[in-house]
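ping. complex inputs:
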Amino acid sequence: MANIIKIINGMPQVIDDNWIVISEVDAATQSPGTHHILPFSYWQKRDVYEVTIKPRALWISPDHDFEASVTQLHELDLIAVDFPSFRDGRGYSIAYLLRSRYGWKGELRAIGDVLRDQLNYMRRCGFDAFAIRSDKNIHDALKSFSRYSVQYQGAVDQPLPLFRRR
Amino acid sequence: MYQYDDYDASLVSERVEEFRDQVARRISGELTKEEFLPLRLQNGLYMQKHAYMLRVAVPYGVLSADQLRMLAHIARTYDRGYGHFTTRQNIQFNWIKLEDTPTILAELATVQMHAIQTSGNCVRNITTEQFAGVANDEVIDPRPLAELLRQWSTLNPEFAFLPRKFKIALSSSAQDRAAVRMHDVGIFLHQNAAGEKVLRVFAGGGLGRTPILSAQIREELPWQHMLSYVEAVLRVYNRYGRRDNKYKARIKILVKALGADVFAKEVEEEWAHLKDGPSTLTEVEYQRVAYFFEESRYNRGAGDEAIFQMQLAANTRFAQWVKRNTRAHKVVGYVSVTLSTKPGAAIPPGDVTAKQMEYVAEWSERFGLGEIRVAHEQNLILPDIAQADLYTLWQLACEAGLGTPNLGLLTDMIVCPGGDYCSLANARSLPIAQAIAERFEDLDFLFDLGDLSLNISGCINACGHHHMGNVGILGVDKDGEEWYQVTLGGAQGNHSALGKVIGPAFRAQEMPDVIERVVTTYCDLRVQDEAFVDTVARVGLAPFKVGIYGQPKAAA
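pong. complex structure:
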């Protein structure tokens, strides 16, 4: 069973995880299991695949146009956002929108090329779960959450900018 | 100038510790080269041809005497005794060891300096003009808003991995001296008819492979909305800017592809969700920040006008220096002095030695209010000098090699480090600048030529802003050889323009002759005191092409 970092009561912790991310390729052949995180594109085409089990989790790629379907996303247990490369920053804006504009309250998980030096930024944009890339030490990655005591600008974790709190 | 409180200081020290850890992980091999790259870039650390280069932030170009002394100390201790001031109003050190950088950053932090986001695909150093707060044609001091933008952009979690670098400039003078429209976002701060501080916002400017002047996307935005509006621009760009091709990833390509109107509409729609939210600036915060920029120590007075006139009359070079290198100040009796870092062929433009930095720091305290500015033209400015002190200052500046009266003249070149240092460059820029400076050593000839900007870039990235030079030189690579393309007619300021290529490129050794032919053609064509850029505008490129390449051959 894989590990992820999950923020529980404000504390980042390493926990066991039994969700499995289903890739775009596999999604066409695999019927959705109860712990599958399915691609958003698969879900959009669910009539085609005659899905009998309602998906509980989806992952969004930065290329997915998820905003039109945002009300249906609220039926899910978990939304994951894929980082195709750690240098692709679109996922931060997607997380911000899901949390601030679309009211997503459930688990928001960063998947893909998730590295420790991005974790604090991701958390500030609203992620509360992090599937660290499997070749990296997940326990070392925990250290990245405690680096900063000061944030100038408002974000999801603290909408008030520092100038309203000074 | 702005003074850190505990929050600002903590954030910078926390950043130093984070980077110390990142460097240690790179050295141990835990971080791959590829993973370390954006991390070090966001701390201003480049791998150049010979060594690491560290770019230190000089927010909106403002330095204190102590900060400049610290830069001198770093130049001497960790580099080869000098630093290079850049078109981003920053300073670069070219010979840095990776393992020294955490210590350098810790030392910088002691004088409220850092290297955060001086590179990388994030919001870069906020720039404004070198005379901000003291210019006599200024409507409102832009520095408080520039500082507020600096804070907002610093470690902004959403915008640390943008499609490309992102540059913001702010200006509030009658004359734009900050090249505002060649920035990703450009803001003109002014006062509207009702006396309110409002912003005119431009987006989508930039040089490089596809040079574009930005388009206006907002008229009269109340200043309180500056952060939320810029946030809206960046969110639209972060989501929809191209990431498939680094040459098409700048916001200018997105603005151009959508059209400025459509882009502005997208921004307005995004901003509608943010308007009046928590990012709306407050009067209290504005006043808190503005307080640090208020200056009431102007008390040295103009001195004896008769003595000053005598000094001018007695020394032609001094009079020329006063004419070219000083500028009217908002307080009567004071002027701003530009110390040229371009004394001639021996020194690359923008290079300043540790000793010179210490002199400048000392003069800023002895004659001014302890403040120094960096200009995007790579010169240093003492913004507040009493007229009575000019003669003494000039003598000292000349002794230190900083008194050349060539501001705005052909030898006041903007030049990137080019192929001698930069690993991106296709050609060298410094030897070209040197050869041209050797050819045009005669100051009196240069005075006669008048205002003429010459900008040189060693590659298409255009760090030397060649498109904006009246004469621009771009180094290009053809089959492994260095060639130089010439553009004419570029300009910064209120009538910003992009230069046009005149024709086939030249070899390095031809360049002094080529520039001489440009100048000779201008002298032949100009009417009375017409400036170079006006002559080009009036006659077009054709006569210059003839002057430079010779008469086109008649068809056989």
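The longest helix of chain A spans residues 90-101.
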